[in-house]
Design a protein that fits this description.
Blueprint lengths: L13 E5 L2 E5 L12 E5 L5 E4 L6 H11 L4 E6 L9 H9 L3 E3 L24 E2 L5 E4 L2 E7 L8 E5 L4 E5 L17 H12 L6 E4 L8 H24 L5 H8 L8 H17 L3 E4 L2 E4 L1
Parallel strand pairs: 4-5, 5-6, 6-7, 11-12
Antiparallel strand pairs: 1-2, 2-3, 3-4, 8-9, 9-10, 10-11, 13-14
Helix pairs in contact: 3-4, 5-6
Length: 291
């Protein structure tokens, strides 16, 4: 994972990215959120949609109020329900009367190694969007693109008028996504990357963390290659003898911040589970070996 850029960061400022898209950065930086969660506002004037409203933080909600500035909010749309993405939906819906639409509700007791990615228990969608369903407003159309893997309920949203794709945490502008079992699924994640790779209409990605991705297909191709390289590393180390999942981290992630070791171990575990399902690895008493 890359380090954050030098401060100051444009927290709380509405930045115009293209005629239909504005971005507001939430004040929740961390080793997993980079400079913070980016909320996107789609549409101008007669009605807008708010994508990934972010944490239920008073300063962030005030910044969203200022950015919307009395516009009619047609929908509050969430890519997934990690706690840095969806909690502000409830408060924003109460303020604006807008429906909460997008991903399904998902709450697991095992929320992984990082506190800021725990599941949002307050999330209650008024409408769950299936793959290919659309939300429309004045001059804009957002299409749901199902991309499970990071979590099973993850959606991206495609802005049909401009070729922009809001990628949430599935594709980020600064790091690969963490895939944490039991809900995170490496096979599903890879299939979702391949699905995006096949979408020729996407001109730019707007991720929830990190800068806009101007060459999206090149990045996705590299991400697929990176994951295959990780899988090959795991198989090579398993060929040397049995390993616990934690044993792979110092071998595969040299120089990694110790704070991120547990997350790296979870991604390795996701790869190992995928290999086991494919008949290439076997687990016994938390020890993995080749078959």
């Amino acid at each position: 994972m890359a380090g954050a850029p030098p401060k100051p960061w444009p927290t709380g400022q509405a930045m115009q990215l293209e005629p239909l898209v504005r971005r507001v950065l939430a004040p929740n930086p961390s080793p997993y959120t980079y400079t913070g969660t980016q909320t996107y506002i789609v549409g101008l004037g007669d009605g807008c949609a708010v994508i990934d409203p972010g944490p239920d933080d008073p300063d962030h909600l005030l910044a969203l109020d200022a950015a919307i500035d009395g516009e009619h909010v047609c929908a509050i749309m969430c890519t997934h329900t990690h706690r840095d993405h969806s909690p502000a939906a409830k408060t924003l819906a109460a303020r604006t009367g807008a429906p909460v639409v997008g991903c399904a509700r998902l709450v697991l007791d095992d929320s992984g190694p990082r506190a800021d990615a725990a599941f949002d228990r307050s999330y209650e969608p008024d409408r769950v969007m299936e793959d290919g369903e659309q939300m429309t407003g004045p001059g804009w159309t957002l299409t749901a693109v199902a991309t499970p893997g990071h979590v099973s309920n993850h959606l991206c949203f495609a802005l049909e008028e401009s070729g922009a794709l809001f990628t949430g945490d599935h594709v980020m502008g600064w790091s690969t996504s963490v895939v944490i079992p039991p809900d995170g699924d490496m096979r599903a994640y890879m299939q979702s990357l391949e699905k995006l790779q096949a979408r020729e209409q996407d001109r730019v990605y707007y991720p929830a963390h990190g800068e806009a991705v101007e060459k999206p297909h090149q990045l996705v191709r590299g991400m697929i290659g990176h994951r295959r390289q990780r899988e090959n590393q795991i198989l090579r180390f398993l060929g040397e003898g049995p390993h616990a999942a934690a044993d792979f981290v110092p071998k595969m992630y040299k120089g990694l911040d110790p704070k991120l070791h547990k997350a790296a171990e979870m991604s390795v575990t996701a790869h190992l589970i995928d290999l086991e399902r494919r008949g290439l690895a076997l687990q016994s008493d938390d020890i993995w070996r080749t078959i």
